[in-house]
Amino acid sequence: MATDFKSIPIIDISALLAKCNDPKMAEDPGVSEVVRQINQACREAGFFYVKSHGIPDSLLKEVKSVAHKFFDLLNEEKVKIKISQAAGYRGYQRIRENVTKGIPDMHEAIDYYREVKEGMYGDLGKTLEGINQWPSNPQNFKEIMDEYIRLCTDLSRNIMRGISLALTGSPEEFEGERAGDPFWVMRIIGYPGAPKPDGPDPTDEIGCGAHTDYGLLTLINQDDDITALQIRNLSGEWISAPPIPGTFVCNIGDMLKIYANGLYESTLHRVINNSPRFRVCIAYFYETNFDTTVEPLETCIQRTGFARNSERAVYGEHLVKKVLNNFIPELLI
Fold first, then answer.
1. Which of 36, 163, 176, 262 is deepest in the core (most CB within 10 A)?
2. Are 288 and 176 contacting, i.e. CB atoms less than 8 angstroms apart?
3. Sign of CA dihedral 196, 198, 200, 201
């Protein structure tokens, strides 16, 4: 469970990545130390930075650069890939079209999901059936994002092997039927700069309202020079997660909370951009298999001495419910 943390830990995961495909990785002292740090971070804050993660810094910067270029376009150009029900809730949404707990957010974004073909998951996946909408400008947008998604998927799987070791002693709990065929979500988000002192009431300008994420693990790639992400500790204080160049901010989601049976919590966080400059954030969400049933791991039940019987969800149902609650329906027609 979250504590009264005052800062977010930074974890060098190079030792974990070096051994992540070794059958004896659990015996390696370097891996054990990384796992210890991840476990402590997940227990105390639900958030941590990772460095030495293997994704080139040039790519981290490039995805943000092309995102800025897209958001700089005229509105009539951006709405060519406008989000809609027909597109499986994929595409661009304008400022205040996304809502958190019923309140419009002060950001614009593009939503991408692992593509769902017709009938792929039966009625469960029908809402998200569709293909991703890619802008023609910037011209290299799709190619850059495809590579980024591929690398984030691989990195997330490897971090989850460390989390699996922390929870169960085995690196493979999140393979197979649980997350051997992981779903993924990516949001490319743009936050306008703060209003002028004589502008609107700042309380109306929350970039993204307080929420928890819904999957296993989130990788947050934020602009290097604007602090806007805030995480709430146990006492209700909002702790800033300032950008650290070359790192990801990672956090655990609702599905991992269920698997951990109370050992970990998904932590409330929000975004407030007090800078006068436009801010970009690329959030990649690593999920379970779309149609898997998520319930507490037996090892975690044994460790806590009880089972949270109410803690159970089919991931696809959970995701669709969240998606349908994130938008004002009449704006998606």
1. 163
2. no
3. positive
